[in-house]
Amino acid sequence: MIIHYHSRTNNNKIEFKRLKEEHLEMVLKWRTQPDVTKYMATDIEYNLEKQKQWFQIISKDTSSKYWIITFNTISVGLIALVNINWTHKYTIWDYYIGEAKYRSALGGIIPLYLYNYIFKDLKLNKIFANVMVENKGTIKIFQLHGFRNVGVCKQHYYKNDRYHDVLMMELLAEKWKAQNDRFGKYVGFFE
Predict the structure, then answer these.
(1) Residue 144: which H helix or E strand, with range?
(2) Among 3.40.640.10, 3.30.70.920, 3.20.20.140, 3.40.630.30, what is the CATH number of 14-190?
(3) What's the rounded Cα separation, in Å, for the pair 16 and 110?
(4) Are 128 and 168 in contact (CB under 8 A)?
(5) Which end of the chain is more exposed for a tag (fewer CB within 10 A), N or C?
(6) pTM for the full model?
(7) Cα(122)–Cα(89) distance, rounded to whole angstroms?
(8) What CA–CA distance (Å, rounded) separates 163 from 166?
(9) How far is residue 95's CA from residue 105's CA, in Å, rounded to a whole number?
């Protein structure tokens, strides 16, 4: 089912298509690029069979949702909600733009579509984000979107033969709704 918004238009032609098996090879290519994995908690090997196994697991998981980000019908990245807690109304999210030429143009606005979907359609109350402290650009973007810093988990990820500190951040629905005049127009189509 595609959610359509009649009161707003999607002028940027950004859509979020449910992740399907046909997307797995493309996602694997993105997910194993060093410039994509640089700030991710884990690195994975390029193994399509393992990717298919992962897909089978997440396809049955009611606490997660994965979409391919498209811009003008071109697949450019992946966005996901994981560990959705329907009782307490919060989720953790992640995304990346796999196609390098779209990162600077779309990297800061793609999350806005997801926040509106999370708070308006799913009726969740909070989004968590975990960001490596050296990922200064993403931290700045999230703060501009209204996230607040919750705290730093010291030596939380072990990657590339060293520990990395991780900034825990959160965005509450009330904080997001207070910015509706500024960001309310970013409404997308989520399959």
Answers:
(1) helix 136-145
(2) 3.40.630.30
(3) 10
(4) yes
(5) N
(6) 0.89
(7) 9
(8) 10
(9) 15
Distance, in Å, from the CA atom of 17 to the CA atom of 107, rounded to the nearest integer, reads 17
Q: What gap in Å lies between CA 62 and CA 65, rounded to an integer?
A: 8
- The residue type of 130 is N
Cα torsion for 172, 174, 175, 176, to the nearest 10°? 90
Segment holding 124, helix H or strand E: none
Kind of pairing between the strands at 90-97 and 74-85: antiparallel
Query: What are the C-alpha distances in Å from 96 to residues 63, 89, 102, 150, 162?
Result: 20, 24, 11, 22, 23
- Considering just the CA atoms, what is the radius of gyration of the chain in Å? 16
- Tell me the CA distances in angstroms from 175 to 54, 136, 172, 186, one per residue in order: 34, 22, 5, 16
Cα Dmax for the chain? 51
Q: Is 119 helix (H, G, I), strand (E, B) or coil?
A: helix
Residues 84-113 have pLDDT tens digits of: 999 999 999 999 999 999 999 999 999 999
User: Which position has the token pair 């959705």?
Assistant: 84
Asked if 30 and 78 touch (Cβ cutoff 8 Å), the reply is: yes
Residue type present at position 44: I
Model pLDDT for residues 20-60, shown as the tens digit of each residue: 999 999 999 999 999 999 999 988 999 999 999 999 999 99
